[in-house]
Amino acid sequence: MLTNPIAPSSALSASDFELTLNQVKGLFASRVVLSHNRGIDEIHVVASSSRKPKSVVRDIETLLFVKHGVKIDYRKISLVLLDDEKFLNVSLARPEIREVTEDNVGNQRRIRVRIQGGGKTVVGEAREAIDNPTPFHTAANATIEGIEKLTGHYMDVRLESAATMRLETREILLVVLACLIEGREETFVGASFVGSRLHESAARATLDALNRRIYSLSGEVGRLMQTH
């Protein structure tokens, strides 16, 4: 029986839950399907065969309850186990944010965005002044740096604008990126539900926009995402 004490007005998005699940040891990728009332209907995960299925499921149940107060029936969890070597040959539909962390370094706040794609994990980093925070720009810059490391391409990208809007009971962050491509400027838009941490929301929205840029690159990127 699924219970979810989080009220609909403050319910998390599927990507919020996925960001949490992706912290589980040995978990390669996850997809969460929500019901109409924002509860969790289905959880689909791909994990390393080096871990026991019951341990992975137990970790998922515990983490969701401890972090979000959500109790999930184990029968809602669909689990596939793959050898690490085989997973490296599975083409991910798109890079995924695994973790966004914040810490203070002197009078600056450091934002680190860990991204995984095609069996490769990278960390992008950016800093902002503690007394003058710019979470949208900082998270965007950290995410851009991470994608540059992941693809091996310099991306002439800047954050053009970022704004929040309310859609019924949910607040949404829209990010517009300006990209210089072969001498011409193109714009890409990304979106994310706004959570309690602005840096996480901004990183997800930025990656959503960057995915459009990634697949406008040459086929070299596509080969990298499949073979690394």
What are its keywords?
single chain, 228 residues, alpha+beta, GMP Synthetase, Chain A, domain 3, Double Stranded RNA Binding Domain, 2 domains, three-stranded mixed β-sheet, three-stranded antiparallel β-sheet, 9 strands, disordered N terminus, disordered C terminus
Please, could you describe this protein's structure?
By secondary structure, the protein is α+β, with helices and mostly antiparallel strands. It folds into two domains: 8-87, ANL, C-terminal domain (GMP Synthetase, Chain A, domain 3); 96-227, Double Stranded RNA Binding Domain, CATH 3.30.160.270. Helices cover 31% and strands 38% of the residues. It is built from six helices and nine strands, in the order H-E-E-H-E-H-E-E-E-H-E-E-E-H-H. The chain has helices spanning 14-21, 53-68, 84-87, 135-151, 198-214, 219-227; strands at 27-34, 40-48, 77-82, 96-105, 108-117, 120-129, 157-167, 170-181, 184-193. The strands form three sheets. A three-stranded mixed sheet has the order 1-2-3. Strand 4 and strand 5 (108-117) form a beta hairpin. Helix 4 runs parallel beside helix 5 (198-214). The longest helix is centred in the middle third of the chain and has 17 residues, at 135-151. The protein is globular. It starts with 13 loop residues before the first helix and ends with a helix.
- Beta-strand portion reads 35-45%
User: What would CATH call the architecture of the largest domain?
Assistant: 2-Layer Sandwich
Oligomer: single chain
Query: How many domains is the backbone divided into?
Result: 2
Which stretches of 5+ consecutive residues score pLDDT under 50? 1-10, 87-93, 217-228
Say how many strands there are: 9
Strand order of the largest sheet: 1-2-3
Q: How many helices in DSSP terms?
A: 6
Major sheet, described briefly? Answer: 3 strands, mixed
The CATH topology label of the largest domain is Double Stranded RNA Binding Domain
CATH superfamily of the largest domain: Alpha-isopropylmalate synthase LeuA, regulatory domain
From the alpha carbons, calculate the radius of gyration and give it in angstroms: 18 Å
